[in-house]
Specification:
296 residues, 6-stranded mixed beta sheet, alpha/beta, D-Maltodextrin-Binding Protein, domain 2, 2 domains, 5-stranded mixed beta sheet, 13 strands
Length: 296
């Protein structure tokens, strides 16, 4: 006959053994997973530099053993750095050119451009300027030097001062393609290395005009964006989120991260993070327009 004490001891042992199994299982299934490690070099578009830097900080906070270094220089420099093995990820504020794709193919590399955000190449003037909008023909005449005083556009009697992005910039390439259409800039333009620099200089001069990105515009209170229309008959469009997302704003564009198609490891993890929900949140905070999943 088994005593009450023996039954109690047996039950307690069983419960204790079961608890131990549960504890072992929990330790196994919830043990920390190895994080992403290694270094990634990112280079290219000045438009994207501050945004991608914010993504890099967030990515590294989640992956303390990863190191992401972000450098500007312009879209062309970013693609060149990628193709010469200096960077693993390129930042580009325009479509890849056929020349770039052909050169990559000659090195056995197939490039993938991952859409990161939508942006409006924004034409800005000093906040004291009373002008509200321009059509693209007027804008071309201004930057080509055929219109040199604001009174010719219905504004104040003041000479126009021109600020543009330096050569090699994706922003400059887009403006030259869509606005100038092959015509040269006026000889009196001042070329600057970043969108922020243009916003600063336009904010300091009442007669100034330049172009920049939505993100740089958000950081400046001394400039304003002009509404643009494709021609004199079209209604002017502000560079707001809906107009930029739909392409109704005539200088809308997509911003890309560019990688070789077979990219893996930390570089792939970083690009995927930038395109994730957390990345899209950072894009909105930076003043850009998110790209929906599956678009482009």
């Amino acid at each position: 006959m088994v005593s009450h004490a023996s039954r109690t001891f047996g039950l307690s042992s069983l419960i204790g053994f079961g608890s131990l199994l549960v504890l072992i299982a929990l330790l196994y299934f919830v043990r920390p997973q190895p994080g992403v490690t290694g270094s990634v070099q990112v280079a290219g578009s000045e438009t994207l530099r501050s945004l991608v830097s914010a993504c890099a900080e967030a990515f590294m906070s989640l992956n303390p053993k990863a190191d992401v270094v972000v450098k500007g220089g312009g879209s062309g420099d970013g693609v060149a750095a990628l193709l010469h093995g200096i960077a693993e990820v390129g930042m580009v504020s325009r479509e890849l050119s056929q020349r770039e794709r052909d050169y990559a193919a000659s090195k056995g590399i197939e490039l993938t451009a991952v859409p990161l955000a939508r942006d409006g190449l924004t034409v800005i003037v000093n906040r004291a300027n009373q002008l509200a909008s321009l059509d693209l023909d007027q804008l071309k005449a201004v930057f080509a030097g055929r219109i040199r005083n604001w009174r010719e556009l219905g504004g104040a009697d003041e000479e126009i001062t021109l600020f543009v992005r330096a050569s090699g910039s994706g922003t400059a390439s887009l403006f030259e393609e869509r606005v100038l259409g092959g015509e040269a800039y006026a000889k009196i333009v001042t070329a600057l290395p970043s969108n922020e620099a243009i916003a600063t200089q336009v904010g300091l001069r009442t007669g100034a005009i330049g172009y920049t990105s939505l993100g740089a515009l958000r950081a400046s209170i001394s400039v304003k964006a002009l509404a643009l229309n494709a021609d004199a008959k079209a209604a002017p469009s502000e560079p707001d989120a809906d107009a930029v997302r739909s392409g109704r704003y005539p200088l809308s564009r997509t911003l890309f991260l560019v990688v070789p198609q077979r990219t893996t490891g930390t570089a792939r993890a970083f690009v995927d993070f930038c395109a994730s929900d957390r990345g899209r949140e950072l894009i909105r905070k930076a003043g850009y327009v998110g790209v929906a999943q599956g678009s482009e």
